[in-house]
Amino acid sequence: MSKTHNKKRNVGIIYEQIINFVCGRLIEDDKASAEKATKIIKKHFSEGSQLYKEYKLFKALATTKNTPEQLASSIINEARKACNNMFDSTQLEKEKSLLIRDLNYTFGKGVIFSEKVESYRTYATIQTLLNEWRNSSNNFDKMTEYEIKLHGMLTENAESKSTLEPIKVDKITYQLMNEMFNKKYKSILNNGQQRLISLYVDDDEEALIEAFRDSKSDCLNVLEAYLKSCNNRILIEKRSRILSKIQDTNVNIVNKENLQKFLTIEKLKEELQGE
């Protein structure tokens, strides 16, 4: 990637890393850290700031797909003009430095920047172009190379949308956290587990308790049916203990430890149904 690209100064990457961090902290029941990170977004991406302006332009390029070729070329031309006219480059770099310093001071050096970003290459291409467009002594060959890459991104028929969202910080809701979580863990969790975690992250206590109740009841029914027809002597011998453990789970406790118990119950149910 270009020398002009630094992932710690890539507005799209930084923003998504913060969102990933918030999502992770919510899952770990560390709401204090999640709130601190959200406040940092509100502070540094406030409307009218250079970061806010760059993010809006970045987001528009990152989320535009399936565009006719001629329109894609027009979008690139307009983005280039906007980049040349709407930014105070010195102030923008200052704001990025302050954001980086705030993140490192609050959470520890490099903690936020260790979060993985799936669309890294796309975001790097866009940020490289923004940097080149703002640079009065830009490298024409390099700029042309990345404009061609961006044109390909704008015209491709994407199956999934970018995780970038309009920057309305008050609407950085648990829905976005769920989207980020599902994107990261969907391949390793079953549907029941995903639903429980989704409700937990949503902080929907009433719905989660109801889901715990359903999970417990369903698993007991599946287990009873399985034990009636199975020939697993060890499992039959441990029947009472297994049933007792499930029956003793308290559906009315909403915390990380109890969530983990019901994630295990959902996994057990899946395995029994798969036998």
General description of the model:
The chain is mostly helical. The chain has 2 domains: 7-184, no CATH class; 191-274, no CATH class. The protein has 13 helices and no strands. Residues 158-163 and 166-174 have low confidence and may be disordered.
Please tell me what the overall shape is.
elongated
Distance between the termini: 49 Å
- The count of helical stretches stands at 13
| H/E element order | HHHHHHHHHHHHH
The SS-based structural class is: mainly alpha
Helix content: over 70%
Number of strands: 0
Strand content: under 5%
Low-confidence stretches: 158-163, 166-174
Summary, kept brief:
The protein is mainly α and about 280 residues long. Helix content is about 70%, strand content about 0%.
Salient structural properties:
single chain; 275 residues; mainly alpha; 2 domains; 13 helices; 71% helix; elongated
List the helices and strands and how they pair.
Layout: H1 11-27, H2 31-44, H3 50-63, H4 69-85, H5 89-107, H6 120-134, H7 140-155, H8 174-185, H9 191-202, H10 205-229, H11 233-237, H12 239-248, H13 256-274
